[in-house]
Amino acid sequence: MNILVTGGAGFIGSNFLNLFVPRLRDHFFVNVDALTYAANLRNLDPIRDAPNYAFERVDIADFDQVQAVFDRWKPELVVHFAAESHVDRSIRGPRAFLRANVEGTFNLLEACRALWKPGHGLFHHVSTDEVYGSLGPTGYFTETTPYDPSSPYSASKAASDHLVRAYVRTFGLRAKITNCSNNYGPYQFPEKLIPLMIANLLDRKPLPVYGKGENVRSWLYVTDHCEAIWTVIERGGVGETYNIGGGNEKRNIDVVHDLIRLVAEETGARRQELEQLVTFVADRPGHDLRYAIDGTKLETQLGWRPRETFETGLRKTVRWYLDNQAWCNEVRSGEYRKWIEEHYGATPAPRVS
Questions:
Q1: What is the CATH number of the domain that holds 62?
Q2: Could you give the residue numbers annotated as active site?
Q3: Is 31 part of a structural domain of the chain?
Q4: Is residue 100 part of a domain?
């Protein structure tokens, strides 16, 4: 089976491919990625020469490019990770998010509809718990929670979710949706909370925390997320939505203190000195207070549960960044882009108006 994976050079997509390309040798994986700022093909060094893996540079917001790659590979399964995903960037420049997340998803759905006969193919759409909006101090997001997005990012993901459901109901497209809580782990671009804090701790730079750090997030280790996605692909119901959560609710400030403790333990640094790096900054507009996912449906119907606790996953994450500081330095300095440009050419800067 040919499997087309969009956004496979990004954080979650690269972990997915590194996990399943060696495991599923009877399937052929085609990694489709535009190689925008957060994509890094060095993430895929472990499988670069695998006989069941190929890379195609494709901008999914360009329908002609999408159609060409579908004509070439005729995928039977599409796993759709590709998205602009950083909330702060969506506030500064929402247009790129609408282009990638809405128009890109639409182009993929159209290509699938044209290629697959009724009852054939599967489109797996990877989404976020942010589409549900903000929770108060109690309660959980379920698969039937009404959508209430707060940021341009979450609104664009909500729109893409609705498009997928519309194609299921109107055209009979075989599709499934998963909405996950915050991911963390290896290869995450250091604009997100956990890798940013680790990098700043190692460089002894300030640790910027929005507001008072009271915002609560539920955390999911990235390989647990990948395993859950494959579980849904294999055993989930067509047309169904499944929430994927790690069962780990943490205030942002508590995550920062956990990272300080782990970096101190792993490096021998003085914890008290690291604590002094915490710097509270003005909160961002529309900052949701709390996310928390109810993963009962996935657990009871499909038998999936996360393997990592927050403590074990966070320690693995800290150790990975400590062991891969060359990768971190290349990403933070932008040096990794030179390698991409030498091999694939420069990526045009997205419009941000």
A1: 3.40.50.720
A2: 129-130, 153
A3: yes
A4: yes
Which residues of the chain fall short of a pLDDT of 70? 339-340, 343-344, 346-353
* Cα–Cα distance, 260 to 270 (Å, whole number): 9
Alpha helices by DSSP H, the chain: 11-23, 63-73, 87-92, 95-97, 104-115, 152-171, 193-203, 222-235, 252-267, 271-275, 296-302, 310-323, 325-333, 335-344
What radius of gyration, in Å, describes the C-alpha atoms of the chain?
20
Q: For residue 347, what pLDDT is reported?
A: 62
Model pLDDT, residue 339: 63
**For residue 136, what are the contacts with CB-CB under 8 A and spacing of at least 6?**
289, 290
Supply the range of the domain harboring residue 164. Answer: 2-185+221-246+291-307+339-344
The number of domains in the chain is 1
Q: Residue 121: its pLDDT value, please? A: 98
Which has the closest alpha carbon to 16: 43, 34, 40? 43
Please report the pLDDT score of residue 353 as a whole number. Answer: 37
Q: Is residue 181 part of a domain?
A: yes
Within a domain: residue 23? yes
pLDDT tens digits along 85-127: 888 889 999 999 999 999 999 999 999 999 999 999 999 999 9
